[in-house]
Amino acid sequence: MESFSLLMQGLSTALDPMILLYALIGVTLGTAVGVLPGIGPALTVALLLPVTYGLDPAGSLIMFAGIYYGGMYGGSTTSILLNTPGESASIVTAIEGNQMARKGRGGPALATAAIGSFVAGLLATLMLAFLAPQVVKLALTLGPREYFALMVLAFVTVSATFGDSTLRGLTSLFIGLALACVGIDSLTGAARLTFGVPQLMDGIETTTLAVALFAIGEALAVATSATPPDGMHRITGRVSMTVQDWKRSWKAWLRGTFIGFPIGSMPAGGADVASFLSYAAERKLTRHPDEFGKGAIEGVAGPEAANNAAAAGTLVPLLTLGLPTTATAAIMLAGFQQFGLQPGPLLFITNAELVWTLIASLLVANVMLVVLNLPLIGLWIRLLTIPRPWLYGGILLFATLGTIGVNPSPVELGMLILFGVMGYGMRLYGYPVAPVVVGLILGPMAEAQLRRALSIAQGDWTTLVSTPVSGTLLAISAFFLILPIALRFWGRGKVLSAVGGDSD
Predict the structure, then answer these.
(1) In a domain, 504, yes or no
(2) Of 252, 271, 251, whose CA–CA distance to 263 is shortest?
(3) Could you tell me if residue 414 is inside a domain?
(4) 184 has which bridge partners?
(5) What global pTM score does this model have?
(6) How many structural domains are present in the chain?
(7) Among 94, 382, 441, 487, which one has the highest count of C-beta atoms within 10 angstroms of its own C-beta?
(8) Distance between CA 306 and CA 309 in Å, rounded?
(9) For each successive 10 residues of the chain (504 residues), what is the average pLDDT?
């Protein structure tokens, strides 16, 4: 009941006209940018991160939440109409959604995706509100050893569990950890890897790195790609769902929600895994097996609900433990840190009003999104007619101006270009970019907890496995490190390659 009363207090704050305006701007921007082809939620949030810089913390984070959910909503439009998933989790939506669009049923496909996202987002946010305080109580009992083990688990799951190569994922992680060493050593006060550049004393700006790797790297990759985009399938006939569509969709929405949220809450989870599992469940439970692969509406409703529920689930470890388990969550963590806020159990104590307002604003954002998405489907479709050179040229301009506006410095511009080229090179050679951002954000925290644990134990490294919690977490990390290698050895990586991605 305490969680319910706190949520109601947060909701009363979230219904303030100014807060509602911030949420509306966030969901509109998030959907508009997320609808554009090849742009997933991670890129959307990274691109719009500088927009929120000049606001107060509450307004900024609420707009950020709107952008996050809006980007998730918008991704389904390109998957269905263009067969161009903006993220790995939308691949499954594209399988059946694009087939429906080819048959002139793009309208019902977009409608079931929007309503499914709304149902899943609403239920998952409520589950987040009731689960988060319990996780906080558990987190308050953890010491430096346990926190270090948790961060090792986050490192492994983000970089090595899914993707084409464990070695490439770990290489990306070590690049991020190396970048995290730049700046002043918090313990000794000595400058590390600054090369005499005063602007590097404060370390690498997370916003700069995220925008460069995701936005500029993606734009350069698209610009150099010789593959022309698939043609858009026009919507013909009615946009709304029929009674039969509703009957076939509502169970899939609920199943997708209850599959997606727990998987998203786990360190090794993610929206891509949830959407694939939801699709497999719908294919097994359907009464219309002959339609799968040819445009089954359940194959859109279930995975899209699972995708959005998992997105809400990733906020559980992010808000309660400060652990980002996806690329999007990592950039959201950067959004918190730019205001001097560190997600974790203490955030629920020191900034309780802000946290509960943020959670309540997710409920408001969901309502706004379903109201925006259904009537404005035609407007979002018109955005898809923007020529790709204009689109990605605009992304380069917007990303550059946004970053320079936050931190006007030639050094910052140079790093933006350098990291952007690095992001392009990583995409070219198949290296995931998400672990770099995670390494930069979590690296200093992992270092601090490791040093603290060793200081308490007077340099005894066995202290890291001396408690049941830390030992179990490190054992799980080792399991997740070895598992993909074993699966690739036995199954030649077909399953992992199918769900691999870094833009969730």
Answers:
(1) no
(2) 271
(3) yes
(4) 191
(5) 0.70
(6) 1
(7) 441
(8) 5
(9) 77 83 85 70 73 75 80 76 64 78 80 86 87 79 82 76 70 90 80 80 80 80 64 54 83 88 71 75 80 80 86 84 76 78 81 84 85 72 70 76 73 88 89 82 82 85 85 84 70 48 45
